[in-house]
Write a structure and sequence with these properties.
The chain has three helices and ten strands, in the order αβββββββββαβα. By secondary structure, it is mainly beta.
Length: 157
């Protein structure tokens, strides 16, 4: 079994990636990821040439999986490959709200602040959440509502 056949049998589906310089390369797709700005990326492994040196010093050419990230627009599916089981991160619809961790000055003070996703005040460590989660958090006394973007106003509708 050749290197490509071995990876093909063990790894995820293959796809054709267009590199920034226009070259095309077949890659193993390991997952999909939506970045914080909403863009989709495919996490892949490119099988690149490598040198393997055995314990006795003999060397031979081989292929080595090398992690790369590729913009979704630059990935083309290959007919016959199955993509439905790929791990997908950030795909939950409606993640328009940000829950920011804030310094808690006393045990009774809020430890988090709710913002709209595009609020300039949500700068520090934060997590994007769904609309349903945001609605529930509006009623939580341990969550402060941002007084700049006022997500509570939009969530009442």
């Amino acid at each position: 079994m050749g290197v490509e056949e071995e990876w093909r049998s063990k790894a995820g589906p293959w796809a054709r990636a267009t590199l920034p310089d226009g070259q095309e390369l077949d890659v193993v797709v390991t997952s999909r990821h939506r970045s914080r700005d909403g863009a989709w990326w495919y996490e892949c492994e490119a099988i690149l040439p490598a040198r393997h040196e055995a314990a006795d010093g003999a060397t031979k050419p081989t292929g080595a999986p090398t992690p790369i990230s590729v913009q979704a627009e630059r990935i083309a599916p290959i007919p016959g490959e199955e993509y439905s089981t790929l791990p997908t991160e950030g795909a939950v619809a409606g993640r328009q709200w940000v829950l920011q961790k804030i310094h808690q000055y006393s045990e009774d003070s809020p430890s988090r602040r709710l913002h709209r996703r595009d609020c300039w005040q949500a700068q520090d460590s934060h997590t994007r959440i769904t609309t349903q989660e945001a609605v529930e958090l509006c009623a939580d006394r341990k969550v402060m509502i941002c007084d700049v973007c006022r997500p509570d106003r939009a969530l009442r509708h």
